[in-house]
Every structure is written in structure tokens, then in C-alpha cells.
Protein 1
Amino acid sequence: MSIRLRVVFLAWIVCLAGAAAAAPVTFSFTGKVTDDPFGLSSFGAPISGSFTFDATAIDAIVNPDIGSFVSVGAGYGFNVDVDGTAYSSTGMLTINTANDLVVGDQYGAIAMDALLTLEIFLQDSSAAALSSDALSGAPPALASFDLRQFRLFGGDAEFLGSVDTLACTSGCVASVPEPGSLALVLLALVAAGRPRSSLRGGSCSS
């Protein structure tokens, strides 16, 4: 394959990666109420919900053992039904990960606004649940965590609950390459194989 064809092909891959970045991923979960200080429900009442994030979000933390991935936009956020009452916080969702800390491995999804905080928090004290702090488009194995908790905090409601199931229901992927990383690979290949005459690569437009 000629250098020019390689550049066009790799540019096409970068375009596809950019398009994939626009597709959100949704995890759904179920659980039960374990604590309700306001007395709005009862012990064991059902919880069901979902949260949506961008699987290509960039890690905001340099530390290789801790990740924080923020998704901002109308399609992202957290929705939950607690014993028949719906709660939601949309527009932004953060996935936090921690690998091999003193307290173990942690995975959390949190959305908050001025009135409400919705969160699931998972922790494995043996530090075996996660292999890195990377963000994945596939849900972590719930059985690997010894603490599996749902949390809701608001001005007139507060719930703690279990997280009994966690599954991907939309946009499921094992992992998504970052478009920026693919672009760097493309530039490196162009620099390494570029002839003296200038090359014209492809574009994302059809």
C-alpha cells in the first residue's frame, strides 16, 4: 500500500473514531432501599435506574491509578425510580475510577445539580476488580465488588440502597480508542514515511 493510501486509510479511521465519540453509552441497574431517613419509602423497596456517559471522555487526572471522566451534554446524566418516584439529574455525568489504592479498587458514577445528587458507588477492598483506571464502555463485573451502593441526596429526599444488577443497555463497547490518540498515530506515520513532495490526505467529508 502506498504512503498516500495509508494516510487516507488512517484518516478515515480517525473520522470513524470521531463519529463514535458522539454515541453515548447507557448502563442500567436495579437494587433495593436499605436506608431512608425521610421515611418516604420502606426497607427493601425497589430501585431501578440508568446513567449515560461518553465512553471516549478524557481522563482529567494525571495519576495513573485514578481516573475521572466527565461527560457534558443534553444526552448525559442519571435517572432513577425509587419505589415509584422518579428522580433525575441531566446535562453532566462523571465516572470515577481507582485502581489498587490502599482502600482497594473503586468505580463510581455521579450526577449532581443544585438540588440533587445521584450516585452509584462500588468498592473492592481486595483491589482485584479493576485492572486499571481506564474508562470502559462495558460495565464492571458487579460480583467483584464487596460494597455496591446507590446514593440519593436531595433537599427533601435521601436514600441509600443496594446495587444488585448492572448491565449495559445502549451503545455497549469494550473500549473506544481516543480520537486524539489515533490522530497522533496518523501524524507519526505521515512524518515517518512522508516523501519530499507534499501529500494530500483524505477528509471526513463524503
Protein 2
Amino acid sequence: MTCPICKKRKAKRFCPAKGEMICAVCCGTEREVTIDCPSECAYLIASREHRDERREVDWEKMPFPNQHIPSSALEAHEPLFIQLSYAICEFAGENRALVDSDIQAVYQALAETYQTLAGGILYENPPAYLLQRELYGKLRREVEEYRKQEQVGLSAQRSLRDSEIRDVLILFTQIAAGKSNGRPKGRAFLDFMRLQFKPGTFARQESKIILAP
């Protein structure tokens, strides 16, 4: 059987996205590029494992390259990560087109908003792309809801600062960038967030691979 994509090589791998056999080369080159791979695909999972083993962080290419936020910021506000992760997974369940690059763009825009707030002003520049803009609004509300919940448990002398929210959002943006593979249909970071919840919670089946932070 000839591969239906290249129409040249022999089809040896079953592609669950296309529902037919394709060749190994097209599987590797078109994966998450023109093929919208499901998270349970064994070849997708293996490729992520291979990438994680070889991955090196290039800080010059990371968002906010001059800001290295300590992991203690995430540890202090882990409930915020869970709350935002759930909101994103819920949004992704309703919007199948959402991919890692959308999530990263939204996190970055949100981090920039709180960076201006930490400087004493408010300047918002939500993403222009409608899907990203809608997610931005949803996460903006989630962050403010988290702030209200946190302030209930804090003393009157210790309210949650904009700079703390900013640091957590910058760290989230950098984690998203580190886990993403840069492919147009990549969802490695989205699947990582889905792993925070019980199987079957969201429409897309979660990946079997656990990605280290």
C-alpha cells in the first residue's frame, strides 16, 4: 500500500488521525503540522519522550528571557496553576482548534498586563486572534477570582500583590514555551495540563506521558 500523503513510499504506520496507514517519513514530518494528531497516538507519545530527553533550554529564545522566576513562586501559588489549567482544559474541550501556541500567546499577554499593573498602571493588549482573545478574557477572570479567594485567607496587612501574580504568569509562560514543540498543531503543553486531572474529565483523551516541569 502506498502512503496517501506522499504517494511515493510504502505505508507502514497506522495514523489514528487519518484512520489509515501512512509512511514513517510523513508521520514524522507531518505530525502536528498538517496532521491533527490525537493525544493517545503511540508515535506522538514516543516523539515527545524523545524530545524531552534531548531538550535544552535556550533562555535567549524564551519569553521574558531576562526574568528567571524561582520555582518557589509556583509552589506558593500552586492552586492558581491548577485553576488556570482547569480553565484552559475546559476551554479546549469547547474549542477543538486550541493549540499550545495559542495558550502561550495568552499567558504572555496576561503576564504583560500584570507587569504593567505591578508598575502602577493598567495597560491591556489582549491578543487580536478571536480564539486567543476569548481565552485571555476567561483567564483574566480566573486570576482575579483567585486573588479574591487568596485575600480572604490573608491578613489585612498582606494582600496579594500584582508583582506576585505577574511572576507566576511569567513562569507559566516560560513553562508553556519549554514544553511546546513549535509545531502548528502541537498540544504537548495542553496534554501536560490535562494530566493534572482525573482521566475522562475532558473530551480529548490525555497523553500517557508525564512531562516534567
Protein 3
Amino acid sequence: MTGGPRDRLIEAAGAVSETVLRRWAAEVDREGRFPRESVAALRDARLMGYFVPDRFGGFGGDLTTFSRIAAILGESCLSTAMIWAMHGQQVASLADHGEESHGETLEEIAREGPVVGSVTSEYGKGGDLLTALAPLVARESGYHVRRAAPVVTAGGEAGLYLVTMRAGEDKPTSDVRLVCVRPGDGRITVEGGWDAMGMRGTTSVPMKFDVTVACERVLATPFRAIALQSMIPVGHVGWVASWFGAARGAVRRVIRGLREGAAKGGRKLGSELLLERLAGIRVSLDLIESLLGRVASELDGLRRERAPFAAYQDIRLNLLINNLKVAGSTLAFSVADRLIELVGLNDGYLRRSELGLERTFRDLRSAALMFSNDRLLAANGKLMLVESSGLSGLFG
């Protein structure tokens, strides 16, 4: 490997993506199973500790490089890319807001690479990330966590969980705390399977938790601050980068196939319709990449400056982060859709096609549903109405 530490990480991600993720992606999708070989390769490459601070043995990574790695992984296996991105989202939240008592956990993540599961979904509250219904119950030995979640990505495979809980039985649902839970803390069960249209390798299963944790496992920082400063920004960057990678990989495979076909005297490449469709697809990719780079760069700046929480409450920034998710999910799926239209039934729609567009199409269909675009657009509409000009950040 050459270059600096981040270049070496990107090279390592590329090697893992090409040699391991690509090899197992179709089988993982077909069997709807956790991509254990791919996650093990990421662990061996020490990429599971990407956001762990240097002093705890990690890389203390930035969001720009994070997005590049997620995109590389997404080109070969979107399920694995999303598992890694969501794991990174949780690790960043713990690294940014944990206390010194969480240092051993961060060292363990850097050293052993356990998947950190996100437990934020909850029956009865809809998709509101910033609320929790189940309360923490104080006990002599710590806090009792009793909680059910309809969806936990890689839930049955996680070695740690970050669980949102209402701060207490007498607290409002908006007073939320994040709790670090380990499998040995009590009874943790998988309550069902994951038989989805796409993203089948994420094994996003329903789970129940009935555990007791020590007091220091409850992060002191209110969850709203953790979510706005770390979990949502890192998550949206990682998700969109993964979707972008899946779309970019599909385009590369199609162009390679077109060139090979033309070289063998098959399909002619001079059709204006073909050229216009390819150009339109490139516009969509460039738009995702541009917005992704802008958001990642701005967030990196805030993180370097150790900006106060108020900076993350800025309306313009929140509009931008929400728009990244909405635009990225919509455009990435449209790329897969238009590629199938471009290459036709045999090469695009059928599962036997070597181009793998059918799997990419199914995987990317989930993008708009994760933290629903409808919810984000409604939130953005409200933000625009309370913003001073309604259009701040647009050309000055």
C-alpha cells in the first residue's frame, strides 16, 4: 500500500470489496443470510474500528474518507456496506459522547471488531427517532432495560447494542438516553426472521431485550444531542455513500458490458437514445456525489473545530442533511431503474444476468423507506417555514 493512513484504508477497503464482498454477494442475497465472510474480512482489515479514536486503538476517521469506503463496499455488496455504515454510525455516537468509562468498549471495538447494533425502532412510536416509550427502571445493581424493537440491523450477529430508552418512568417520551448493552447482560432474543425484497443480508430482525446494566452504561448526554451531532449526520452520509456505490457499480458493469458487446460486433453504441440515457444516468451519479461531498466536508469541518451543539441545530445544516438522504435515495434507485430499461429484459430484469441489476434494483428500493423520505420532507417543509428567509444557503 502507498500514501497516508486514509489512502491505505481506502486501498484495503477496495481489496476486501473485490476479493470477498463481490464473491459472496449473490449467495448472501439468495439465502437471505448475514454476510459473515465479508464482515470478517472488514474485521481483519481493522475497518470495524474506523471511528474509534486513535488513543483507543482506532483510526479516528473523518466523514469524507468514511463515505469513500462505504461507496467502495456498496459497489460489491450493498448489504455489507450498510451493515458497516450503520455500525460506524453507532461507534461514532459512542466515541463522540461516551465517557472515559467507555474507553474499554472502544478499545474492544478497535481490537476485536464486534458489530454494534442500533436499537432505535420501537413498537407504537412510528418512525420518530427522537422519542422512546420504554423507560429505564432504576435498580440497586443499575438500570433495568426491557424493550422490544421491530427492526435491528444485523441484530442476531451484534456483539454490542446501543439502545434508546426513556430516561425514567416519570420522564416524557422526549427525554431519551442511549444505553450500551452487551449480550451477557440478560435475556436478548431474536423474535422473528427477515425475508425482505432486498437488502437481504442485513438480517434486520425483530428483537427483545430484558437486561440489567451498570449505571455507567447509560450515556449522560441526552440522546437528542447524540442524534443531531453524530447519529443522524454520520448515518445519512454512510447510507447515501453506500447507495451511491451500489448505483456507481451497476453503471460500471453496464458500460463494461456495452463495450465488450460492441467489441464482439454486437450492440452498436452510436444510438442517440442510448447515449442520452447514459448521459442522464451520469447526471444523477454526479448530483449524488456532489451533495455527498459537500455534506461530508462541512461535517468534517464542524468535527475538527469541535463545534458546539448549537452548530448542529442550525436549520440550514439540517435541511442539507435531510436533503442528502432524500436526494441520494431517490437518485440512486432511479439509476438502477433506468439501467434495467437501457439494457432490457435479458440483461437487466432476469436474475441470471451477470450484470446483477435485478439485485441492485431490489436493494436500492429500500433506500427511500429507511427513515422515510416522506417524514424527512415534512420536517424540511416545517424548517423552511421557520427559517428567516426560507431559502438560506441558496446562492448566498
Protein 4
Amino acid sequence: MIANKATTVSADKTVAEIQKMLASVNATSMMIDYDQGRPDAVSFKIVRNDRPISFRLPSNWQGLLAAMKKDRTVPRRLCNED
């Protein structure tokens, strides 16, 4: 079972919330990768102990959608690419 798999929050709003959180911890750069107009990964850099640390967090929305479609407890209206 995948926790927190269904949401009605748009991808754009989620991206904005992530950017706000990263800014609040003084991220020095942020980048959103897109695939066919949809957010696909978040990359960012944070400086700790005077050393920049880079991160890239890819999404796996296709795999999550497949799991949601198999899970009959997920309302069908939520089983879509959005």
C-alpha cells in the first residue's frame, strides 16, 4: 500500500509549496524538470558547512498511477494523470 497516494491538489500548487519550503531553508538554487508539460523532478542546492550539496528528486507519477488503478480502495475519479 502506498501512503498519501491520492490528492486533489494540483501539480502546480505542489511545486509552488515545495519551492516555498526550499526558500525557507535558504536553498541557493531550484529547478523543476518537466515532461510533456508536467513536473517530473525537483532539483535544488543547499549550502551546509560552507559546502554546496545538490539534490535531484525525480517523481514516479506513472508508477503511482498504475498502483492507484490496481488499488480498488482508491476512488476511480482520482485515478488520472492529474
